[in-house]
Amino acid sequence: MIHITEVIDITDEVVDAFARLIPQLSTSSPAPDADALSEIAANPNSVIYVARDTDSGEIVGSLTLAFYRIPTGLQARIEDVVVDDAARGRGIGADLTHAAVERARSSGAKSVGLTSRPSREAANRLYQRLGFEQRETNVFRLSLK
After folding, report:
1. What is the pLDDT of residues 52-94, one digit of tens each?
2. By residue range, what is the domain housing residue 90?
3. CA–CA distance from 67 to each of 7, 45, 53, 109 (Å)?
4. Can you give the CATH number for the domain in which 110 is found?
5. How much is the pTM?
6. Is residue 134 part of a domain?
7. Which of 8, 9, 37, 86 has its CA 20 to 30 A from that of 48?
């Protein structure tokens, strides 16, 4: 069974879990250290969720929900969703996403956005199955580092 919780306190277990999970999401971004995770957890505009396997006690997934206010209303974004390779196919990504969507809804957000690389076919199918609609837009990014 999987239990989804919001991370409030950054423990060694949480740091170790991110050190294991983030490389499975991105080979170009280093895993956050305790200070970076503490900054995210303390920010009132972000929520870190983790998925814990209740049988093993291990953290097997994570998701970050970010809020931002713009002139047209409160928006939310799901970022850095990752489920451990060994735990995929068990509905953990869906559980994490449901928790984030419910938090966004209860916080008054107008919508929840996310991006997913086309190569992440299973993730893209999941988001569509959960009701997310693919938008016809251009996404631009300017790298600052």
Report:
1. 999 999 999 999 999 999 999 999 999 999 999 999 999 999 9
2. 2-129
3. 16, 5, 27, 8
4. 3.40.630.30
5. 0.94
6. no
7. 86
